Amino acid sequence: MASGDSLLVFDPLSNRPPTVDYASVDLRNGFVVLDFDDTTDEKAFFQAVVPSHYRGGQLLAVVTWTSSTATTGDAQFRVETTRLNSGVNLDALPAVDGSGDVTGTAPATSGQLVVSQTPFINAGGAVAGDLLLIGLTRLASTGADTLVGDTEFVSLEIREA
Which of 34, 38, 91, 140 is deepest in the core (most CB within 10 A)? Predict the structure, then answer.
C-alpha cells in the first residue's frame, strides 16, 4: 500500500455516540454535520474493520470541518484509536492505543470547509481484519481551542502515512 492511500472514511451518520458529552447531528444547507460545542469536550465514535490492504505503520487522520458562525479562532481535535481484538470485553474497553491532536483555524467565511490533519502511531499494532474504535473529540476545554461557537464535522479519513 502506498503512503497517503485511504484506509477508512467516516461521515457524520457513521457516528456511534457515547452516552454523555456527544456531538449532535445537525443540518447545514442540506448537508448532515455533527456539531461539537465550544464549552464541553464532546465526542463522536466510529467503528470499522481494518482493510486487507493495510500493511501497518503510522496513520494520518484528516478531519474536514467548518464553523457554525465563527470566522476567527482555532479549534482543536483529538483522534484516538482503540483495537478491539478477540477477547475484548465491550463493557470494559481497553485503553486508547494511539492518538493525535490537530488544531485548525476557523474559515474566513463561516461554512467554508477546513481540512486539518495529524499523524499518529498505530500503537495497538492493529492489522488487517481487526476491529477498531476511532474517537474524535473537540478539545474545547484546552487553551488551544479559541473558536467561539460550534464546529461542524463533515468527514474523517484515516490514511496510511
Answer: 34
In tens, the pLDDT along 89-136 reads 888 878 888 888 999 999 999 999 999 998 876 666 788 888 999 999
What are 65's three cell numbers?
470541518
Rounded Cα distance, 60 and 3, in Å: 10
Q: Are 13 and 32 in contact (CB under 8 A)?
A: yes
Cα(45)–Cα(124) distance, integer angstroms: 17
SS (H, E, C) 78-100: EEEEEEECCCCCCCCCCCCCEEE
For the chain, domains (ranges, CATH) are 6-160 (2.60.120.260)
| DSSP code of residue 141 | T
d(CA 9, CA 151): 19
CA distance 88 to 95: 11
Q: Is the whole-model pTM more than 0.90?
A: yes
Pure H helices in the chain: none
Phi-psi region of 4 (alpha: psi -120 to 50; beta: other; left: phi over 0): left
